[in-house]
Design goal:
This is Sigma-70 family RNA polymerase sigma factor. The chain is mainly α and about 190 residues long. The protein contains nine helices and no strands. Helix content is about 80%, strand content about 0%.
């Protein structure tokens, strides 16, 4: 991006004006110390940086420190930083936040939970329930135990009091009947 001569001159004048201000001098002297203090209590680098800026905004708004020596200024800045840390920790405790990366990961994982996907899934479940009624009661029970409760055929055989082979045959016939019903619907 190319800047015009007037814009560049204005930026240089602004920079010189800012660099000469008491807040800029205070920032240059103590920002690193305050940032180091913030990092002891705040995990996120971005949050710590933001809080350091908030401390110096307070210094800009409330210039009681102008006539103080360096030690007094640093003590005052540390007190302001302490209050900012406490406020931040209280805010985080009341409203826990999720990092953007975590939120994006969760968003893609929960995509199947979108309202559209849930509506489609509900329609599919309704159709399946309508088709399951066409099976015998024993076939319905076997399908429910196999797919609803994730049981193996041997476990189902014990529950319905029959042999494993009978359960397999009934399950196979039930699934074939359901396939043919869905195939007819698709045509």
């Amino acid at each position: 991006m190319r800047m015009g001569g007037n814009t560049l001159m204005y930026q240089q004048q602004s920079k010189e004006t800012l660099d000469d201000s008491p807040v800029a001098t205070l920032y240059q002297r103590h920002a690193h110390t305050i940032l180091h203090y913030m990092h002891r209590y705040i995990v996120s680098k971005e949050d710590a940086d933001d809080l350091v800026l908030e401390v110096f905004v307070v210094a800009l708004d409330n210039q009681v420190w102008i006539d103080w020596n360096d030690e007094e200024q640093l003590a005052w800045l540390r007190r302001v930083a302490h209050h900012k840390v406490v406020d931040h920790l209280r805010r985080v405790a009341r409203r826990p936040s999720v990092g953007l990366d975590d939120a994006l990961d969760t968003l893609y994982e929960d995509e199947y939970c979108s309202p559209e996907q849930m509506a489609l899934r509900n329609e599919d479940h309704t159709r399946l329930r309508e088709h399951l009624v066409k099976l015998t009661e024993l076939q319905q029970e076997i399908v429910r135990l196999r797919f609803g409760h994730d049981l193996r055929t041997k476990e189902i055989a014990q529950i319905v009091n029959t042999s494993d082979n009978v359960v397999r045959v009934l399950l196979s016939r039930a699934l074939n009947l359901l396939r043919s019903i869905y195939k007819q619907e698709g045509d």
